[in-house]
Here is the input.
Amino acid sequence: MTSVKLEKTRDRRLPTGILGGSLSPDANAVVAACMGGVYRLELGNGKKQKLHAHESYATSAHWLTDGTVLSGGYDGRMRWFDLNTQKLQRESKLHDFWSWQTDVSPDGTLFASVTGQYLAGGYKYEPSPEREPSICVGDVETGEILHRLPHVPSVQSVAFSPDGRFVAAGNLMGEVRVYDLRLGELANRFTTPDFTSWGIIKSHCYLGGIFAIRFTPAGDELLLAGMGPMRDPMAGNGRQLWQRWKWDVAEPKMTDQTHDAESGEGLMETLAVHPSGEFFAMGGRLRGGDWNVAVFSLKNGNRLATLKTGYRATTLRFTPDGESLVVMGAQGQPTKLKDGKLPEFGRVEQYSVTAA
Amino acid sequence: MPNRKTKLTCGSDEHTVHRRLFLQGSMSAATASVASFNGLFSIPALAEETKRSGKKCILLWLCGAPSQFETWDPKPGTATSGPFGAISTSLPGIQISSLMPKCATIMDKLAVVRSMSTKPNEHFQAIDTLTRGDKPRPPFTRPILGSVIAEQLGQLDSPVPQFVLLDPCPEGNEFKGFKAGNWAGWLGAEYGPVRAGGDYGIPNIEKLDAISQADHADREALRSFFSKKFENDQRSAAAASHNAAFDRVKGLMSCAPLFDLETLPKADRERYGAGAFAQHALQARHLIENGSTFVMVANGMPWDNHVFQHEMHQMLVPELDNILFQLVTDLDERGMLDDTLVIAMGEFGRTPWLNEARGRDHYPKAWSLAMAGAGIRGGVVHGATDAGGYEVVDGKADNQNLFATIFSALGIAPHEEYDLPGLPTFYRVEEDAEPIAEVLA
Here is the structure.
């Protein structure tokens, strides 16, 4: 494969910015975790329905095959909403601080949620140790917490391996920990210095880290996404960066990363692997350059396609048949009311995917 | 409180000399260092009275501008609220950000102003205005707050620096540029800050071991005699400035331990928090306890969160919460709060709306700050913004009102005139701006 063509087929809106979400099993709708609650959106006709709201922003939502929507939020809670009965089934307080991100195992039996507040732990603002375990793994059906696993806050990204045996989590400092869920033990860890900035210009503190993490289809490597270091972290002008790491060896090593001349500037915060296993998509914000969503070959890392959506992409999902890519995200919050209401700034777009 | 708009002059020939120096001083920081308006406001009886009262000030300078929504003016349940909740405080009906649980317990000691509304929208201009009290009026350079307070309330003959800036960050974007400028303005270099913090130690203040104490004293006496003679014979402002610097260094040599964080009790250091801003806030308390009059604590410009607003504020606000709590509580327990004004503020606020980069941008139109201690009535929340935090709807206050409040709280007449013959008229606070009466004790 040498190229991928992306063509926009649908453009939908939601009232507030979207921070996470997933496709329905039939790929005709999405559930979106928004600043203002969890929404169901029909991609075909744009019909939307607010399902419920967390006490703060909702950050992730997963549409399970039985019609349950599992969502996490900045209130540290996970909620189970039954689309069939239209009722909230269960709520569980997982963390004292935010649920930054959640994932559900490929077989739909486990959930994982990561948390952690970055607080000053040293004169140069090294992160203080966690005050609660940063990784929580539980049973989707019962809500029972199976593992509480340590990391260094803030832990901003999490993913299950394709076989559901491992969970990987990346943090502010670029440290990745992979836990074996059969044993409840650390399987491996490594740190990449390439995603984290220590403020030089305006501030003295750490900023950035790994905002998205995904296993490759074979499960032996990890894709990481974020932004390269900056002298002024508050400029948001670091390199649009992904890295690929072989993690299941004694000395984990980076095997590839965004190729030179294929990146602009901006924080990348979402990854999706195509069902074919041949390429992956990365998305985020455009700060400098000409794209904020791009598709890369899993074979050689080459960039195959780009999009300039005009808004911050927070979530990418390929449809199970691989024929579409759904991009969710947020524009800047409108500064003024229009007709007494805040204009909608949550964005959902669907693109056809043609590989050649 | 002295009569408003009093015109004070010491009546000396100094002003003739100073008129020229003043103009030079306003042109550049380097030249300004030779300008001195020592005694510009001096009515001896008044000066002695204010000095006896021992009023001090610590400014927690939140450079870059914190979000009022994530600190003192949360808007729970609205589109502008952000992801952090609001919590109840010790003041019935008053909520602040959930990131500030400690300050929520001492609101009876704090005065919060939720209705600041100022003009400058860019950092440099806003820093200039909010630290000097007024917009620029070239070619004259209004002294910064710390210089005015050091001049009015400080002990110039004290070995302890009267105006200290603690800021470990060598950069700071616009704040870096501002730091390089002329802080003391027409008051002259002796009212400028001594800077410390991080790598900004105070160099070369250790006496060489090879020189005995007696030799050291003899050498200094000789240097002092000749340089003073030169200063008097030549009427040399440069020599005067040089001598002032030497006097300052002599003082610094005697109080070097005050600048050593390692000398502070470990328990105190842990209580304040590990970050540089927290450590220097503790150091500020220590300096105030030991004779400094004004200490400005900064840490670069970390609050300017155009991107990563919430990722940054999750760390910065709890740190501020703890620092303010510890500082106010410490000063209170030590019987120093009645004489020490603590101010926590930046140069403006942040937008109600979040931009695409999940940041909040500059917003001088409606923002908040907090004060406590000397001359301030605790348990007050002054002013209000509308439901979304877009506009001030009650008790609007600007930089002039703020400075009138600060000076009044410290017993410094806010409307006194700077006596500069032949030059435009300047007042400490221009345009008869009123203090915010509600927050004054």
Notes: The CA atoms of residues 59 and 73 of chain A lie 5 Å apart.
